[in-house]
Amino acid sequence: MMIHAISSDTLSTLIEMAKSQHPHEFVALLDAENGVLSGINLLPGTRLDERSASILTDMVPLGMSFSGSAHSHPNGVIVPSDADIGFFPRFGSCHLIFGYPYGPDDWQAFSRDGLRRSLEVI
Ligand SMILES: [Zn+2]
Fold it and tell me: Does the keyword Metal-binding apply (predicted)?
């Protein structure tokens, strides 16, 4: 399914999560309904640092599928890392990165290839 938007509630929850984990990274996997990202899943026991994205891939039970992911970059650089590019294709088609200081515009959506993409907030 094509993801075209995120609910504003989900977006503000993710921003709060990024703020509360700072200076550590947070990672969440996202569900969608009718093309709108609207559900947040956290996996227990994940380490909250930049390597967590790759560790996470080993912790997701087989058969679970997601529409996208969200994680933070406490250094404020909103560009996918090499680890992110490896991680994105396994977890759906829309991936959000939140950068310090986590203001309303301090985030960007990326495709599974790590390219910037647009995402409506509804
Ligand atoms: Zn990252």
Answer: yes
Active site residues: 25
Residue 90 banded pLDDT, cuts 50, 70, 90: confident
Give residue 14 CA to ligand 1 midpoint distance, Å.
Answer: 15
* Residues that place a CB less than 5 A from ion ligand 1: 81, 84
**What is the rounded distance in angstroms from the CA atom of residue 69 to the CA atom of residue 52?**
13
Dump pLDDT digits (tens) for 54-81. 556 667 777 778 999 999 999 999 999 9
Q: Is the pLDDT of residue 48 over 60?
A: no
Please give the Cα distance from 78 to 107 (Å, whole number): 7
Backbone Cα Rg of the chain: 13
Domains (ranges, CATH) in the chain?
A: 1-57+99-122 (3.40.140.10)
